[in-house]
Amino acid sequence: MVEVAALPHVGAADLAGMIDPSKTALVVVDIQVDFASREGLAGTFCEDLAGVEAAIDRIEELIATARGAGVTIAFMRVVTRPETDSAALKTLMVRRGMPGGEAICRVEGGGADYYRVAPQPGDIEIEKLLFDSFHGTDFDAQLRAREIDTVLMAGITTECCVDSTARTAFHNGYNVFLVSDACAAYDDAMHAGTLQVLSQNLALLTTSAAVRAALG
Fold first, then answer.
1. Which of 75, 96, 158, 213 could serve as 183's disulfide partner, Cβ 3.0–4.6 Å?
2. Which residues are the active-site residues?
C-alpha cells in the first residue's frame, strides 16, 4: 500500500506563494452525522472512526486559521429525502442486494445534520444530493462571485465526495489542493490510493500544518 507521507506534498514556504487568501476557499466536505458520527449511518458499518475524528480535529483548526486569514469557508452537505433519490441510485442499490440502502443523510432523523462543525454567516453552504458538490448546485457561481481561483479540499470521504468535488473543481478551472491529513476514508488504503491518483492528475497535496503556517 502506498504511504500518504511518501507522496509529494507542498510545504508551507512554497504554499504561501501559491495561495492568495482573498481568492481561496477552504472546502469542507460532508462532515455530517451519517458520515462521521457513531450515532449515524457510519456507526453501523465502521467499527473504528478514529481516522475520521482525527481529520475533523484538523478541519476545526483549519477553519479557525482560514477565517482569521480571510479565506472563504465553504461547507458541503448531502441532504436527501425519499422523493429526491434518483432512479439510478435506487437501481444500483437493488442490484447490489441492498434495497433501501440509499437512505443516507435524510433531513428527517438528523442524518444530514452537521457534525462538530457549523457554518457562520457569510460562509458558503451547499446542499447536494450525491457526491459532486458542483452538480445541480450553484457552488461554481458562488465561488466565481467571490473571485475564488483556488480550493483547499478537506473532508470525507476521500475516495467519494472529496474526489468527485476535486475533479469538477479542476475541470472548472480552479487550482486544487488536497489537505491530505484533513481528509479521511473508512479504509486507509482507499484514502491513500485516491490521494495518489488525484495528485498525479489534477491536484497538489499539502498538510494541515503547512496550510496553517502558510496562512498564519
1. 158
2. 30, 128, 161
